[in-house]
Structure formats: structure tokens, C-alpha cells
Amino acid sequence: MPYFLHDNVNLHYEVHGSGDVVLLIHGFLESSNMWDDVVPTLSKNKQVLCLDLPGFGKSDCERKIHTMSFFSTCIDALLIELKINDCTLIGHSMGGYVVLAALNVCPEKINHICLFHSTAMSDSEDRKKNRERAVASIEYKKSVYLKTSIPFLFQEIFLKRGAMKIDKMVAEANEFSETAIIAALKGMAQRRDTNRVLKMFSGKKTYIFGAEDPVLSSLSLKQEALENDATFIEIKDAGHMSHLEAPEKALEAIKKATS
Question: Half-sphere exposure (CA, 13 Å, Cβ side) for 176?
């Protein structure tokens, strides 16, 4: 089980296959195992890396606030550790904010940015207030927060037939510390709009999003992709968590993006 040390934080990662490098970055309340249905196929002709961000999965938690910039330095540190100078970055939700932040840290090592149910927009004032309320809820009782907040990431039609998958995600998220969850929430609230940086990026750019996303507007994401000269791939019958709601369609979208 490989680890490396970055800024006094012990970070877990995985390497699968060989070929052009694709680094997968999980989202909030997730870990590298969110990619379990993607890795076997993608690694048939790619070298696929999965990283647990600080505080998630098997990686340590160090700080009270984990900014997206700090998370992105973990990407650069892993690429240095593995002597990789050219890769595709795919980030889910919060992971998308992290790969965008990497454009300010190691742009010369990135050939393709893929936002998987994510956006270059910063938080609105309402969203920042929601994150503050989330912090208070976690400090009061983490388990209640997770049980009530995670289902809102899925389209309503999936809640019943996908109950086992949602319960599994809640159970895994309960393994993360309150400190780690709060650190990520505060970091997301502080992030800046990165549309200008993304538009200036000369490499390949792709947005993958769900038509029924309850968190991000598919129309807004489509417009954002157009303004940033990016390709967009819409997954029908999927919300914010297509890798769980429609895994085969999500895999096909990622394969298409990385082909």
C-alpha cells in the first residue's frame, strides 16, 4: 500500500496499469475508492493514479483548513514522487476545484483538465452560508449531518433504488474525522473563481455533468464549458453522482474524454 510524505502529511495513493497518465481526484466525503468501477477499464491502456486527499481515505489529516491550493500541492508532490511530467487530471466535484487549483501550481505537467460534476465558479454567498451551517451541524453531531446531507447529492428517483449505495457512502464518510470534513468545507468556501485561469489553459478541457444534477445546473455548466473553450459531455439520467447512479454511462463518458 504506497504512501508518501508531503508537508508532514502521510498521503495514500494507488497506481494501476501503464501508458499515458491519468490522475483521478475524489470529491468531498469520498476517497479514492469512488473510482473502483472506473479504474479496471481505464487502466487497460492508461496508467491510472488515485490519490486520497488529506483527511480522506487512508491519508492523514493535518490542518484545520484544507484550501484547494494546499490540496493541489499534494497533486504536484505525487507527480514529483513518481517522476511524472505530463498527465490528465480528472476531479469529481470538490476534486474538480483541486485540479483547477493545480493550474496555478504545476500547469506545465498538465495536458488535460476534466471537471467531473464540477465547476470553475466560486461559492455564492448563500453557498458559503450553507457551508457555515454544515460546519455547525458537524460539530454538533457528524453522523446526523452525513445521513441528511449525502442523499441530497443524488437525483430523487435514485434514492430508493440506490439506498444501499447511499448507505455505504454514509458509512464510509462516518470514518472521516470531524476535523477533516470541516477543514475541507472551509477550504471550499474560501476558493476563488478559476474561470479565467481555465480559459487561458492551452491544454485539453472537458466538462462531464449530469442532466439531473441537484447541486449544479447542467445549463450553467454547458454555458461555462462553452465560455472556457471546453468540450462538454452530458450524462442523461444522472445527478451529481453518476459513478453511483449510472456507472456504465459515467465510465463511457470518462473513456470518451480521455480517448
Answer: 28
